[in-house]
Amino acid sequence: MRISSADVIVTAPGRNYVTLKITTEDGVTGLGDATLNGREMAVVSYLRDHVCPLLIGRDAGRINDIWQYLYRGAYWRRGPVTMTAIAAVDCALWDILGKETGKPVYQLLGGAARDGVMIYGHASGGNIDELLEDVQRYRDAGYRAIRVQAAVPGLDSTYGLHHPGSGRTYEPADAAMPTDNVWDTPAYLDFAPTMMAAVRERFGYDFHLLHDVHHRLSPLEAAQLGKSLEPYRMFWIEDPTPAEDQTAFRTIRQHTTTPIAVGEVFNTIWDCQHLITERLIDYIRTSVSHTGGITHLRKVFDLASLYGVRSGSHGAGDLSPVSFASALHLDMTVPNFGIQEYMGHLDPASEVFRTNYEFRDGYMHPGDAPGLGIEIDEEAAAKYPYSPKYLPVNRLRDGAMHDW
Ligand code: CS2
Ligand code: MG
Predict the structure, then answer these.
(1) Residue nearest to ligand 1 atom 1, measured at CA
(2) Where in the numbering of this chain does the Mandelate racemase/muconate lactonizing enzyme C-terminal domain appear (predicted)?
């Protein structure tokens, strides 16, 4: 099982994706997602120039050793670029091991701890009526958990909504230069409880309700938000404050019982350590493709399990179907699984990535094909060339840059 080649495939079926394909001397291939939204080519270079040449000739079955070799051996550790590159290698090696042994990866990880993976879908609207219509759509489709976002009245644009005229896509990274959005915290804090009240009033309480704050509040504002949402029994509020300021979460915790989810921008167990061990959060949102792959994310979830923190991995559309398949295999096996985000992918993505996962009754299953159960059609991939695309940036009314 020696590695004979490692190739990076860059394609844009609906949005930009970077995929690592590792091939063994026996011709077995494995895939890993290496997409870092808005900074894609940094990971491409890291892989092509510094990682792929180091893999040739190595035993593909020594997944732990290769992980340590890339992490410790680089001297420069952590960070999104490094950890996304390592993740892609790690997932591709698990994929190869599955294909070699004829087993789906979740079996290699110790087997299923559940029958399926609860996912949450994303309802949104330009106003509350549109949002309620969208929630209805997810209810009809059988979702047991729904994230809700709506345009904040008085603001020209609100991040995280379906893009008008774009069908089901949203958070589209569709601009050659980042556009400026304008943000107003008091307007948002006034609006958020009315949005949740409308959703609960119409649909009741027999499904999980989630909301993403996109790192925009101060600790006290986040505490106020959490308190104002308590009557609506949120499953979580996500990223209430910028995640790198970790003691902020102590303040939020002291004031509200609304559960908190954090971690989509974290890359290692070290980033999560204090939030978990000090029980400052309820869900850890690190993803398989930005946190060192299955091998490392498993350690994060194991640490979290000691402290009653559950998993809730990031699964936005800028993580490719390869990432989503990898996440599902791990989600099947962790005892402290909480929920998995599923934003879905645009239609051209299914031309390029052949998937095996299946949605049934609110749950996803990764399927039983050997490995990750995902293939890439490189001819189709070549039809969708890369060009740089950016999400918007966020400014306050006075023009100052703000978090998003
Ligand atoms: C969002 C992300 O899904 C989420 O929770 O916060 O979509 C995030 O905006 C993007 O992944 C950024 O690349
Ligand atoms: Mg988020």
Answers:
(1) 316
(2) 128-259
- The answer to whether 2 and 357 are in contact (CB under 8 A) is no
Beta bridge partners of 124: 149
Q: What is the pLDDT of residues 354-365, one digit of tens each?
A: 999 999 999 999
Contacts of 247 (CB under 8 A, 6+ apart): none
Ligand 1 geometric centre to CA of 316 (Å): 5
**Helix, strand, or coil here: 89?**
helix
300 Cβ contact list (under 8 Å, min separation 6) = 269, 272, 284, 286, 291
DSSP string, 158-226: -TTSBPTTSTT-BS---BSSPPEEEE-HHHHHHHHHHHHHHHHHHH-SSSEEEEE-TT-S-HHHHHHHH
The pLDDT, as a whole number, for residue 112 is 98
> Apex CA 23: angle with CA 5 and CA 3, to 5°?
65
State which fold the 108-369 domain adopts: TIM Barrel (3.20.20)
Confidence of residue 174 (pLDDT cuts 50, 70, 90): low
212 CB near ligand 1 (under 6 Å): yes
Task: Tell me the whole-structure pTM to 2 decimals.
Answer: 0.97
Q: Assign domain 3-103 to its CATH architecture.
A: 2-Layer Sandwich (3.30)
Report residues near ion ligand 2: CB below 5 Å.
212
